[in-house]
Amino acid sequence: MASERKRRVCIAGASGRMGHMLIEAVRASTDCALAGALDIAGSPGIGLDASAFSGHDSGILVTSDLHQGLTGCDVLIDFTRPEGTLAHLAVCRELRVAAVVGTTGFTDAQKADIAAISGDIAIMMAPNMSIGMNVTLKLLELAARAMSTGYDIEIIEAHHRHKVDAPSGTALKMGEVIAKATGRDLKDCAVYAREGVTGPRDPSSIGFATIRGGDIVGDHTVLFAGTGERIEISHKSSSRETYAQGSLRAVRFLASHSTGLFDMFDVLGLNAADTAAQ
């Protein structure tokens, strides 16, 4: 039997730290091949070989021309900014290229636009591609159901000094999972800042605390504080490699889907586990 063709992958933000990690992960894989590399006009990486940073020759040049970078690709992996991702997805839709989106900071209107695009191409979108983090989200769902009353819930996240959005997309996802499991709407119960005389804590609220400093890849802790006990569920990332490997799992998942909007629970079969338990 002939071996299956490798999935042809385009990397957005190819000159950045995450882009480099993704390019290395694709190069090391046995079932994916680098077929495109995108970056913004004016990036110092434009026109260079996408693997030049590692001393390898991929034969793929970094370009700001979306059609040039995406033509002939099967899937785009995008960890950039919301406006850039939406521009990339518009061309993906035109060229029928699937997309793995790890970008965070989308507005509700932008999320609706992405959902509309998923009617024509397959998109896997998640604020965190880490397998461990997505298992953590599942644990939070279970814990929140059991501790929906009598426990104050606080989410603490820490990232490197260069991160531009706060709270992190992962922290917000944690809040959404907890709110849904406890019958709340995060928009109504989230508390993002406290200062001065704030009064007693609203027991229905979900609090967020944000730390930015150094080169912290990503630390997230959810505190369930009750009377006489506290439970903490934490996930700590020490390398972006976990995001890259999760992204490749998403690439493989999308190989069997032509349209639809999916998340990492779908990729890892965690939504199926819910169905089986019902």
Task: Write a structural description.
This protein has helices at 17-28, 66-70, 82-95, 108-117, 131-146, 169-181, 186-189, 241-254, 264-268, 270-277; strands at 7-12, 32-38, 75-78, 98-101, 122-125, 152-159, 190-191, 206-212, 218-225, 230-237, 260-262. It is α/β, with parallel strands linked by helices. The strands form two sheets. Strands 2-1-3-4-5-11 form a six-stranded parallel sheet, with helices on both faces. The radius of gyration is 20 Å and the shape is elongated. The two termini are 40 Å apart. 37% of the residues are buried.
Write the SSE topology.
Blueprint: E1 7-12, H1 17-28, E2 32-38, H2 66-70, E3 75-78, H3 82-95, E4 98-101, H4 108-117, E5 122-125, H5 131-146, E6 152-159, H6 169-181, H7 186-189, E7 190-191, E8 206-212, E9 218-225, E10 230-237, H8 241-254, E11 260-262, H9 264-268, H10 270-277
Parallel strand pairs: 1-2, 1-3, 3-4, 4-5, 5-11, 6-8, 7-8
Antiparallel strand pairs: 6-9, 9-10
Q: What characterizes the major β-sheet?
A: 6 strands, parallel
Report mean pLDDT, rounded to a whole number.
Answer: 94
Separation of termini?
40 Å
User: Share of helix among residues?
Assistant: 25-40%
Spell out the helices and strands N to C: EHEHEHEHEHEHHEEEEHEHH
Strand tally, please?
11
Quick summary of this structure?
This protein has 278 residues and is an alpha/beta fold.
Features:
278 residues, 11 strands, alpha/beta, 10 helices, 5-stranded mixed sheet, elongated, single chain, 22% strand, 6-stranded parallel sheet
